[in-house]
Amino acid sequence: MPSVYAGLSKRMQRNLAMCNNSSKKIPFQWSAWINKNKHRMKHPQNFEVLFAEQVLSQVSGLDPEDVKPQFPFRDRENRQRRIDFMIDNSQKGLSLAIEVDGYTKNRGMSSMEHDDALMRQNSLIANLDCKLLRFSNQQWRYYPDKVIEEIHELIKMQMQKFNEKIEEKKSREESKINIENMASSIGIIKTKIEASGSKEVKYNYSGNHKYVLFALFGLLISTSFYFILSSKSSRPDIARARPRYSGS
Predict the structure, then answer these.
(1) Residue 47 predicted with pLDDT over 70
(2) pTM over 0.70
(3) Within 10 Å of residue 83's Cβ, how many Cβ atoms?
């Protein structure tokens, strides 16, 4: 909590944080998106709409058109399921599911309901190949800035990794073209040497170009070796610790 809340009770700090967050201005494009999708975000206490207003709309760089509320998917038993929010855009490398949970919802679960919830979560990650963030209503209502930051950092990381893959693919393609061009140049030189009219001319021609031929051949081998290593290299996933939330 900011230092301005120092000395206040935890309940008062939370209430002030909620008031401060609810007073933040909602960008026009997000207001339009919320009005358009409000009928899909049905909750007895309107928490999903409030989450969109107070959290998602404040995430820097997040386009509302990339967010799908109550996103449908199939679990491993081919049953229709839904996730609260899905940030999805293959052109940007975004694939992030967000689930907002209430404390009483989880506390009141039976063992079978709990198992079903876990299967739903596992199916989501496996079938859609996405990341999943889960927040309690207490987390995003009382510590919205931390939740906003966590979402922002994850989508930033996804876009960065996506752009790195694009650059790596572009580099491999350029290397492949260079190898093909060098192979073609070597073939041309070899053909000219073989097509020389006499042994003397052939000897002179090869003498003038043998160093060029050797250099091109060496460059071809080294570039091919680099291309093979680059295509097999893989970047390990970056381990990221989720921020901790204080308070009960």
Answers:
(1) yes
(2) no
(3) 21
